[in-house]
Design a protein that fits this description.
heterodimer, A: 370 residues, alpha+beta, 9 helices, 27% helix, 24% strand, B: alpha+beta, 23% helix
């Protein structure tokens, strides 16, 4: 009788009560105060695709399709996270996750857990945010959670280590509307974690994690996924896209899309200076002289302190004749709202990185992820 | 699996052979209800009837000519009356002509004055535009073309230039078409819209001066652009002149505007007073002043996101009017959010189209300034 029940994918065990979280704050509350993450050991993390009927609510007929779920193996249990999908509202409603915590998977034995464990077994090493085409990915974590702090931005993901974050920058109320991520101190010395509440993606940041120490610009190859990067610059001629599974050794620099006017300016400067592929992940190698020419143009920006000055020099307007060089007009029209000082700092960072890379490499390979 | 790509189908319902040259075919237009469902027994997806069409297919006679009776006004009148009785389209194909496979080349009967004649379906849809063309031409002012050329679907060729070129309105065009047509008015005089009979017996839209018979003919290309060619209609060419239109709403405005000057009021908020002459039909021109506050207009649109406007302007669930409104709003936002420096703002000029243009690429038409600006009684 029990065997029959176990194999019936439609009948959800009564104790599998998915918890609907109406916000990221709600999700954080579940993690911190119901599962009590502090003190627990996170073994692995990933994404699987399973039959929709396995996650149907009790009393409801499950769909005949499949569904993507994120999972974390924590101590002896498993935490499952799924999101409702609504085409007219732009796809997955990431702010409204549903979570299911099964504290003891060995003694659960439900078809859902069986399916999850089977899919975890066949998953390849990768990131949950790598791309929708990757259905079965996982990463080993094997870290004990010492303490968890509340983060209001993603600077600890790519710019500065968690231990350098000033106390006053941390949030102290899990219901804060600013809450974006969890910062995790692991027991192992030198290891921290960044748990993105929006994508439910956990990043383990060890001693070799590459922090950019600059807003917007990302340097660790693990972040070269759709969710965190758009324009990717890689040192050298090697044309394969960056590996985001932790095995990548090439120097890289990345910028997100739609990340404000400063980043948009850098995008446009790079786009007009070098050749880029037309397709996602289509790499294109640009030799040293291309970048050197670009940096020569960019010197005009570095030598000025405001957009008006740049406009006067690059567009060379003749107000009485109503004529000008329109080559740079689109860029200036699109970007003049970017705070010039910040844009200049970002451009300086890019130039410094390129200069350093070009000391040893013949050029830089670029591609976009979208 | 060709049918998967087709949403609409035509099916022959019945046909009658009228004589050795002509056949009358009743066609039913079908729409695929669900192209992803299982096929019916006939091998095609489920479909429903959405419309009907009567088609006369007429073949050449032994002298490779369309029999005269099927080119006659009587036959055109018969088609016209049948359309009124049936409540759906009645079309004619003179088989042997080129391009008859394209339904836009099929003929349809229209009433013009007291005559009934055949025009090609593709030209039938532009008769109002041709009337508006004549009206705008006779207004003798660039402002009259502002709306008519808005869709940029016009190509123009005259005797001085054999190559047709598009009216783009861009700065790359050394001589704006509207300005050129205004100059042509001096040579050609008043134009009246009408139809002329081409050598093959089909009528085409035209405008011409009733005395000199100089004017333009109009053809619609396969990609639905309107091609305008200057020509003289010989006395032997049959023409039907239509009644003179006083005004055509939405195509040619009752009032046309001309910017005659401007004064900068505030460089900080980009405020400018613009002097505009109003020219109304049958009224003397009047001059008014409008205050244009770029800073305020920009502020009003600050929280409207451009990407949202793009989506709204493409939303097929919305009405055409709403989509157009969002499109215009997007255009305004982009125009207003150009790179503004005091120096650029203070040095505009009136371009060849009569619009106020700035070095940052922003262009404001006089009608837009009238719409968005505030009337000033006593300009400072």
């Amino acid at each position: 009788m029990e065997e029959n029940f176990m194999k019936n994918a439609i009948a959800m065990p009564m104790y599998h009560q998915w918890r609907d979280c109406s916000s990221l704050q709600n999700l954080a509350h579940v993690l911190l105060h119901e599962i009590r993450l502090e003190g627990r050991r996170i073994n692995a993390h990933g994404r699987s695709r399973i039959k929709e009927s396995l996650v149907a609510l009790s009393g409801q007929a499950g769909g005949s399709g499949v569904i993507d779920i994120n999972w974390l193996l924590i101590d002896k249990g498993i935490l499952l996270v799924k999101w409702p999908f609504n085409q007219s509202k732009g796809g997955f409603l990431r702010n409204h996750p549903s979570v299911l915590w099964i504290a003891d998977i060995k003694n659960d034995g439900s078809p859902l857990v069986e399916a999850c464990l089977r899919s975890i077994a066949v998953a390849t090493v990768g990131r949950v945010t790598e791309g929708f085409e990757k259905n079965f990915v996982k990463q080993e974590v094997n870290q004990q959670v010492d303490s968890v702090v509340l983060l209001q931005d993603d600077l600890n993901l790519y710019a500065f280590p968690l231990e350098e974050t000033p106390e006053e920058h941390l949030l102290h109320d899990v219901s804060s509307g600013k809450l974006r991520a969890l910062g995790i101190e692991f027991s192992e010395n030198g290891y921290t974690g960044y748990f993105d509440l929006y994508y439910c993606d956990l990043f383990v940041q060890g001693p070799h994690w590459c922090y950019s120490r600059f807003p917007w610009i990302k340097r660790d190859p693990v972040l070269s996924t759709k969710a965190y990067a758009y324009m990717v610059l890689m040192a050298g001629k090697e044309c394969s896209p960056l590996a985001c599974d932790g095995s990548e050794s090439r120097e890289c620099l990345m910028l997100e899309q739609f990340d404000g006017t400063v980043v948009e300016t850098i995008h446009l400067l790079v786009f007009r200076a070098v050749k880029m592929g037309d397709w996602p992940y289509e790499t294109f190698f640009n030799p040293r002289q291309v970048w050197e020419q670009a940096m020569e143009d960019w010197q005009v920006f570095l030598q000025h302190d405001d957009w008006e000055g740049v406009f006067e020099v690059l567009c060379n307007p003749d107000y009485s004749q109503h004529t000008m060089d329109t080559t740079w007009l689109y860029l200036v029209n699109s970007c003049y709202r970017a705070e010039y000082d910040l844009m200049k700092e970002a451009l300086e960072y890019l130039c410094d990185w390129l200069t350093r890379v070009l000391e040893t490499e013949e050029g830089v390979t670029t591609y976009c992820i979208w | 699996m060709e049918y998967l790509e087709k949403v609409y189908w035509w099916k022959v319902d019945s046909f009658i052979e009228l004589d050795e040259h002509a056949v009358m075919i009743e066609l039913i237009m079908l729409e695929i209800i669900d192209q992803w469902t299982s096929l019916l027994e006939d091998g095609y997806p489920p479909r429903r009837e959405t419309g009907r069409l009567r088609l006369y297919r007429v073949c050449h006679d032994q002298e490779s000519k369309i029999p005269g009776e099927y080119q006659s006004q009587d036959f055109a009148k018969r088609c016209w009356e049948e359309r009124a009785q049936l409540g759906y389209s009645v079309m004619v194909i003179w088989q042997g002509d080129e391009d008859t496979n394209n339904p836009l080349d099929w003929l349809t009967a229209i009433r013009a004055k007291d005559q009934t004649v055949f025009v090609k379906r593709r030209e039938r849809g532009i008769l109002d535009k041709v009337k508006a063309f004549a009206l705008a031409f006779n207004r003798n002012h660039p402002g009259a073309w502002e709306y008519l050329f808005d869709n940029k679907e016009w190509y123009f060729a005259d005797n001085s230039r054999s190559d047709a070129h598009s009216h783009s309105g861009g700065s790359g065009e050394p001589q704006g078409l509207s300005a050129r047509l205004v100059r042509l008015h001096a040579q050609l005089g008043e134009q009246t819209a009408g139809l002329f009979k081409d050598e093959d017996g089909v009528y085409f839209p035209m405008v011409m001066n009733e005395n000199t018979r100089k004017g333009f003919d109009f053809r619609v290309t396969r990609d639905k652009k309107i091609e305008i060619s200057a020509r003289t209609f010989s006395n032997a060419t049959p023409v039907i002149l239509l009644s003179r239109e006083k005004r055509m709403e939405t195509l040619v405005p009752k009032t046309v505007y001309e910017i005659v000057g401007w004064e900068v009021q505030s460089t900080k908020n980009f405020v400018m007073d613009v002097h505009i002459i109003f020219m109304e039909v049958d009224s003397p021109p009047t001059q008014k002043c409008y205050r244009l506050s770029i800073g305020e207009l920009r502020e009003d649109l600050r929280n409207v996101h451009g990407a949202v406007l793009i989506c709204q302007s493409l939303d097929i669930g919305s009405t055409a009017g709403k989509r157009r409104e969002k499109q215009m709003l997007l255009h305004d936002k982009e125009n207003l959010e150009r790179f503004w420096t005091g120096k650029i703002f203070c040095n505009p000029w009136i371009n060849i189209h009569g619009n106020l243009e700035f070095l940052n690429g922003a262009i404001f038409s006089p009608s837009w300034i009238v719409k968005m600006g505030t009337p000033i009684k006593d300009p400072a």
